[in-house]
Amino acid sequence: MWYRNFLLVGLWFCLCRSEFCIRNSDDSQDCRQQVAGEELSKYSREKNDEWTVLRGKVLSAFEDYKECSAKNCSCHSGVIVNDLSNFKNGITPQMIKAAESKGTKYQIINHRLYRAKACMFPARCAGVEHFLFKMKSKLPDTEFILNTRDWPQISRYHNQLQPVFSFSKTHEYYDILYPAWSFWEGGPAIKLYPTGLGRWDRHRESLKEASDAWDWEKKSDVAFFRGSRTTEERDPLILLSREEPSLVDAAYTKNQAWKSNADTLNVPPAAEVALEDHCRFKYLFNFRGVAASFRLKHLFLCKSLVFHVGEEWFEFFYPALKPWVHYVPVKSGATKEEIKHLLTFVKNNDDIARKIAEEGYTFIWNHLQMKDVTCYWRKLLRRYSKLLTYKPSLDEKLMEVKHTN
Length: 405
Hints:
This protein has helices spanning 2-15, 45-64, 77-84, 93-99, 122-135, 200-213, 235-243, 275-278, 296-300, 336-348, 350-367, 370-385, and strands at 21-24, 27-29, 104-109, 112-116, 142-146, 164-166, 176-177, 220-227, 248-252, 281-286, 305-309, 328-330, 398-400. It is an alpha/beta fold. The strands form 3 sheets. It has a 6-stranded mixed sheet with strand order 7-6-5-3-4-13. A 5-stranded parallel sheet has the order 9-8-10-11-12. Strands 1-2 form a two-stranded antiparallel sheet. The longest helix is centred in the N-terminal third of the chain and has 20 residues, at 45-64. The chain is globular. One of its GO terms (cellular component) is endoplasmic reticulum lumen.
């Protein structure tokens, strides 16, 4: 608590040198605007007024933010409660049967793990099974349908209620969130990571080392992005980079569907850039792809300021991250002008930018460890299993998963 209060008091000082005052450490309040003609320490009054709204958002966000407990992956438990609340009347065998076409069937029977023989994406199943195999001895008999596709399956508007596990979704879906396979195996396969990102535990260490090598003062004062043209939502940042390369370094890379320069906005594709090399830049952009982006958690570990575009798609750990505390929110469909406005704000308020970057790093480092992923899986399956209205029996069509890497 003392650390949070310390940060908040520090934020008041750096945010509000001209708009607010600190009466003392125990009694802080907003001040009236300074009298006309007072000289500002860093900016003209016009520039200061331009940032008043954004400064207010940062201050309000920090005042409202309550740091979650690191005990028993508590930061993310609310997601489990919310997702399973849709099934408060119980999960029947008929519901499981109806959902089987939406994913891969798993069972844990007598502390042994079983899976349908056919898995649409074997590496994704393997990434999930790493965690399931570790905890099978601590779980009751259960069964569930796990979706390894990129897209969630159970729309609130077009489907009957069915229990399907998916790694990401929007609020328009009933799917039950689980930690993506890419925490251990799989994930986007590109030239730099031909078998997928995978191994979050290793990335945590390599990115921490990179962030230590590129502390805030050494980072380039430029916004950075590399990625394929999955959606046109990324175009304004790419075009802004071409117009103002001193502000943004953003370019499209190839993906599996690339056929010509038309697929990279009429410019030859750029080379891929390792995640560790992202840490050389102060500002990093994250866009959704087909669903939630796998890169978001990695960007935070650079101790750079993350610009997270859009709020529609999320993974299980997203809800615990708070805009203007852990990252700068960018609305979906933001224009070049809107992006430039946000970048100009953080460049002219470096102390604010650094504080948010540090908060984002600290949250992911402390609350998204591998043990938190395992904890989430265990808590999810225990609470889910209590909702089954029957005791599952072994499905003879399934195969036993005997070991994982």
